[in-house]
């Protein structure tokens, strides 16, 4: 939410400054009105739009804006851990020696065991109080708007002196007030004006009503409520009010053709201090001098419209700077925790590196469980174990019954040291895990305690940025992130981000694997990758094996970004080979990705080639798929008589909703030799079997399809012809009926 407000504020500032610099002095009041209202729309839509990657450092402003509130971050981290939990479930199904993390949420209504957990105290950050202040401002200004609306409705309802003037209702006030209008209601205190001034005021407010200026002000008021802290939204609102007055004054002088000097004198005459409501369009505002100057200014020439041509590059550039590219936004930079990946993205990872779990000397596989709050203390709880060959597979929980969190994993048996009859210890750089209970039994349970290694924790605090995660050291323990690993990261990156370290643990990226990713990026990107880029590659299952597969497919010289994009869209050797087997040559990776996105089936390519379309290429196949042109559809058109139809004609037929049934209906009416163009044009103009039948029954049996189309264009049908015959116009040619319709009157010379 915070990020949206920052972005909306920046867009508002850009919109206002562009208007002040380029447009405010122009007399294109209608164009300026469209621009100003359009800016309100862009303010609340552009923050949600993303473009494909087009430039370097795209979305730079998004990386320097303050991040979302701690509440949102906590929620995002929970989602990230849920991904890891689901991922570890797949580990278990692939290899029983690796247990899965499980996600169990604490229900407030759960019985005693769950309720025995200590209740964490709520801590409110500076961001929370800032957001609370924002909501308070929204509530205050919203209340002000509701009061104004209520005031207007009350005055309309209570007034006994209302006059209906066409679509306008004139509400005569009983006490002095400045004249104003709200949609089709005009409020005025008539006792203080002479007749001419009164007429000017009413004409002025009628123009406001006819142009729906009240809608502009209402939209501006709502925008100001949502961005009340931003001074530029109030300035933009003021410009909307002023432009509405300029537009109305121009109508008065040019359309109503009032005397300009007298009209301006009336503006000054009624300049009274009674201020109307801010959501009403009012005759008297505090911009009289500017309005009079604008009325007397020379009108802008059409050549000045060139200034509007800068709108597209200005807002396009703003969009590029604000929002990260659509293809990588969810997985790069600081947005990893804000936009967690779908669970399915973990599948390719397991397929890409199936050997890692089978190495006899490999480190313990780990995965991070999920829980309801990053401040939950997981340093002690309960464990449940069963033996699986050379492993102890343990489940860790916060309580014996239903727990706030639940995490499962397997350890090699020789990694534990027995320290007593019912005490076992596992020690790593990050800390010590002590299990109390009979771990040697086939199935057992007990309590556990995790103790952080103070030296490791101090080293971590001194060499990395803080993390909101209370259990970061425990997660690093499970992922086997030790001091050697941290030293390696420190040697490659000036700053170790605590959140990135958590993600490394969540996605189980070991030191050797991390080093491999660095080498991979340096080989194909020719630069050292960021930690976020490596995490992104890991999540999508991009490794050395997949890169080599891409090269074997014929796609060489690719950047890692493009390789990751291919993996995201499921580009595999089998799919590319099937496209080649179908006869599609010179395949570029971008086109293959596009084909995959639009679900191009290689079998359909073969079927279309079998129908005689030998020159079919992937670009045309993608276009066919987008519009739903299938081999079956083309065969139906051919069976309806379009034997020599081309692919382009098939596309046009599908776009215009032409099918075999409609073609057969036309042919059944005697149009046996019609071409595709004639059938398509008939479909475009709505010439169907019932229309043609009506013309023939009205006395035009020899009608051609071209003449039927002409008749439809001129709205001549059977009913029109029957009515013309009753008036004495009995023709055998559709052309004469067309002439009769065009002239729309009785022409004696046409009668026969």
Automatic annotation (TrEMBL):
Comp. bias intervals (Polar residues): 329-340, 367-377
InterPro entries associated with the record: Beta-lactam_resp_regulator, Peptidase_M56
Residues covered by region (Disordered): 329-377
Record's keyword terms, sorted: Membrane, Transmembrane, Transmembrane helix
Domain of life per record: Bacteria
Transmembrane segments: 6-22, 34-55, 126-147, 215-236, 304-322
Record bears the keyword Hydrolase: no
Annotated Peptidase M56 domain residues: 193-295
Descriptive protein name: M56 family metallopeptidase
Taxonomic source organism: Dyadobacter subterraneus
Source organism phylogeny: Bacteria, Pseudomonadati, Bacteroidota, Cytophagia, Cytophagales
